[in-house]
């Protein structure tokens, strides 16, 4: 069954990963803990980064869940499973062995740990002792194992939804939600997850099995993407009520900000209320962005075709490039703004160079999560499909 490509979701995915590069560049200059830090830091960018951090990754998990629905329209469970391994697990393993180690190397150097050479350091990577005690990690690639596990964990549910009975039940539920303008109800399970589990796992550890609060919350958002994209009529409501979602997003963001400003120990009820507001805030901003994209980003463009394929290799390599460019600048006398601009532009430039090189050879395309170029009678054909894109 042929499905219509959702260009609005493609645009959002490209935009979200572009923001990710800027976000990780900012981590070098704010006061939060990160792998390397500039000799001067600033709090001036932290409010914006906190705001963006509320919805950036949830939006990507939503889009990734939607992408699974499109993938299962094209493939059966067997081929889908093989594609998940090829497009997620192989780049993850390649990233952990090749892309991520330089990040840890420069972090160790910054903290006064010396090595005779990078190859001397790399021997410690092959000891496979997990970071931070050891030097083996997935660092910024943590998103890939989550998507990989979610794809298989939710597969029985996703396959059930493809059947007539599952489609009918979901359609009835979404029709009921649509009639009552109840899209915000999708935020309630997220809030319950945060209220119940977050006290036991207070931080986002990004280590898959060591933070069940994050695991559950992101899995719920992932499943929401699959469910909502499967029922086209609901998207008219998402578009129609985008400003209502924006209003509640601003309202809940105000409440969340007041808790951040208070910055004090809260008893059980206020802390639970904070988690409820934060969860609903996340969902409101996701709905707002989805609605705005549905309204304004529904058209294809040659830039989108190119960027859709580039975004995955960019994601894989960008943080390593950011750290490699940023490390020599740490102790320079240049201003934060100048350094930020140099690191950000350098990250985009060298990520683009890596993409341009790797997209031309099938073996490197596989390592960076791109489909091999099909061999046709006229030679190799450019293919813009990527594993997390909605198609």
Report on the structure:
By secondary structure, the chain is mostly helical. 68% of the residues lie in helices and 1% in strands. The chain has 16 helices and two strands. It has helices spanning 7-27, 46-74, 77-99, 101-110, 118-125, 143-153, 155-162, 164-179, 187-197, 212-229, 234-240, 242-262, 268-296, 302-326, 336-358, 362-367; strands at 375-376, 379-380. A two-stranded antiparallel ribbon has the order 1-2. Helix 9 runs antiparallel to helix 10 (212-229), helix 11 (234-240) crosses helix 13 (268-296) and helix 12 (242-262) runs antiparallel to helix 13 (268-296). It is globular. The chain starts with 6 loop residues before the first helix and ends in an 11-residue tail after the last strand. The model is unreliable at 377-391 (pLDDT under 50).
Task: Annotate the secondary structure layout.
Blueprint: H1 7-27, H2 46-74, H3 77-99, H4 101-110, H5 118-125, H6 143-153, H7 155-162, H8 164-179, H9 187-197, H10 212-229, H11 234-240, H12 242-262, H13 268-296, H14 302-326, H15 336-358, H16 362-367, E1 375-376, E2 379-380
Antiparallel strand pairs: 1-2
Short description:
The chain has 16 helices and two strands. It is mainly alpha-helical and 391 residues long. It is globular and about 65 Å long.
From the structure above, extract its key features.
391 residues; mainly alpha; two-stranded antiparallel ribbon; 16 helices; 2 strands; 1% strand; globular; disordered C terminus
């Amino acid at each position: 069954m042929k499905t219509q490509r959702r260009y609005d979701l493609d645009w959002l995915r490209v935009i979200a990963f572009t923001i990710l590069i800027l976000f990780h560049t900012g981590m070098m200059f704010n006061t939060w803990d990160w792998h390397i830090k500039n000799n001067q830091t600033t709090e001036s960018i932290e409010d914006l980064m906190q705001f963006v951090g509320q919805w950036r990754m949830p939006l990507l998990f939503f889009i990734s869940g939607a992408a699974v629905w499109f993938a299962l329209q094209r493939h059966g469970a067997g081929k889908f499973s093989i594609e998940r391994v090829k497009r997620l697990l192989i780049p993850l393993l390649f990233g952990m062995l090749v892309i991520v180690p330089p990040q840890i190397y420069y972090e160790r150097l910054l903290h006064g740990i010396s090595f005779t050479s990078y190859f001397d350091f790399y021997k410690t990577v092959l000891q496979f002792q997990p970071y931070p005690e050891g030097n083996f990690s997935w660092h910024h690639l943590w998103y890939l194992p989550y998507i990989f596990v979610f794809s298989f964990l939710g597969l029985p549910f996703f396959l059930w939804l493809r059947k007539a009975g599952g489609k009918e039940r979901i359609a009835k539920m979404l029709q009921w939600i649509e009639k009552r303008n109840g899209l915000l109800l999708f935020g309630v399970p997220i809030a319950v997850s945060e209220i119940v589990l977050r006290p036991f796992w207070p931080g986002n550890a990004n280590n898959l099995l060591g933070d069940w609060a994050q695991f559950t919350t992101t899995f719920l958002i992932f499943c929401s993407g699959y469910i909502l994209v499967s029922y086209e009529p609901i998207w008219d409501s998402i578009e129609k009520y985008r400003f209502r979602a924006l209003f509640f997003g601003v309202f809940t963001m105000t409440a969340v900000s007041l808790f951040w400003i208070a910055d004090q120990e809260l008893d059980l009820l206020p802390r639970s209320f904070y988690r409820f507001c934060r969860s609903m805030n996340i969902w409101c901003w996701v709905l707002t962005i989805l609605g705005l994209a549905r309204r304004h980003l529904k058209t294809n463009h040659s830039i989108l075709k190119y960027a859709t394929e580039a975004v995955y290799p960019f994601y894989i390599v960008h943080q390593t490039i950011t750290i490699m460019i940023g490390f020599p600048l740490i102790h320079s006398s240049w201003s934060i703004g100048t350094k930020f601009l140099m690191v950000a532009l350098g990250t985009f430039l060298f990520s683009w160079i890596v993409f341009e090189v790797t997209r031309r050879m099938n073996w490197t395309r596989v390592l960076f999560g791109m489909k091999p170029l099909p061999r046709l009678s006229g030679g190799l054909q450019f293919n813009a499909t990527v594993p997390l894109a909605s198609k």
